[in-house]
UniProtKB/TrEMBL annotation:
Belongs to the pirin family. Binds 1 Fe cation per subunit. It comes from Phenylobacterium soli. This is Pirin family protein. Fe cation binds at H57, H59, H101, E103. Its cofactor is Fe cation. Residues 16-122 form the Pirin N-terminal domain. Residues 175-272 form the Pirin C-terminal domain. SUPFAM superfamilies: RmlC-like cupins.
Amino acid sequence: MIELVIDQRRRDLGGFEVGRVLPHHGGRMVGPFIFFDHMGPAEFQPGFPRDTDVRPHPHIGLSTLSYLFDGAMTHRDSTGAHIEIRPGEVNWMTAGSGVTHSERFETLRARGGRMNGIQTWLALPLETEECDPWFAHYGDADLPTYEGAGLWARLIAGEAFGATSPVKVSSPLFYVHWRLDAGAKAQLPAAYPERAAYVAQGVVEVDGQQFHEGQMLVFQAGQPVLFTAVTPATVMLLGGEPVGPRLIEWNFVASSKERIEQAKADWRAGRMKLPVADDKEWIPLPGDPPPPANPMS
């Protein structure tokens, strides 16, 4: 039933730690999910440095999906989107042919508090890999929820458990947030060929084994999966139809190495638009000198 167990790897992004789960060695994806970061959990004091913010950086060939359990984060991108995401809400940004965005912790810097959430990237299918970039935001009240028998569930994106999320997706997938009371049981159906579960908090039992916070379980196809919460637990379910092999390098996802090299050249040359006209912050490629002033700003 369990094909693979992936332990998160803690990464310091400059004053802020994430638990990186995907990409995993061997280029493993789960449906279209190619990247998965657990942001935090972390406690911030008011007035922490601005270098904790994620400065403007580019993407191609993917959609980013940001979802928070605690805290707040301000998203800004080159489509003109500028919005704060709060717990239970969804930020969906499709990069397509190219987008630049930043993520800033303005509310936490002013007030302090806890930050805890998930950001994942979804590879775009070939037919939309070079689409125009776009952004959408969804409130927590927009998303289907269920509660009963010790389980609370929210369908973040896609289709699952007889429900459909309003979040616009590019390929068949599911992404679900579960909260389970200790002793509660819940089952993941066998509806999609690629499925996984990430334990974001607590301990769960699957197939006679216990798994804890920071572990992703990747399942074989064809059988339902029964979960039992050993302690109160938060579990993220994800998967879908495969979109075909993809390359991931730095912030870029593409079906060819040539497309990634072109994107790197565009970023170095300042041909990728920054989130706002007067935003001169940048994130270089490793070993690169600072890029010139962005001519599209």
